[in-house]
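=== RUN LOG ===
request id: a7f3
mode: sequence -> structure
chains: 1
length: 134
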Amino acid sequence: MISTALARALRDSGLTWRPKAGDAFRIDRVEADEEVYILSDMTVEAHDYGTGTVLGFNGTTEWALDSVALDDALWLPHEHQLRQFLAATFRSLTVRDGFVVQMEAEGQLHDFEADDAADAYARAALYLLDSLAV
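=== RESULT ===
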């Protein structure tokens, strides 16, 4: 699973989240930082209102939680979601000392290495987001 630090960096660089079943997230507060939640039609659902999206906790999933504003949640994208974001820039995922994602941007190949494949994808996505912002 992607690290919290990389998830925050992706969010801060402009990666947008449109919540759907199966997505993983954390409540982005220090006291709740370790717990990972999964959106599901049975336990945690995204509800869209005119004022914004709210993640509603159903039943007794989390006795102390009723709902959380989307702005208070930190999306933890899965590998396949990050690979999809990279789209045509993605070239390969290989294993060396860790996982290496290779992408092509601006006519050049770039390698992004991490101990976890999701983090390698996240680093490549972060590079792409930051290069698009320039």
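=== NOTES ===
The longest strand covers residues 99-105.
The chain is about 25% helix and 35% strand.
=== END ===
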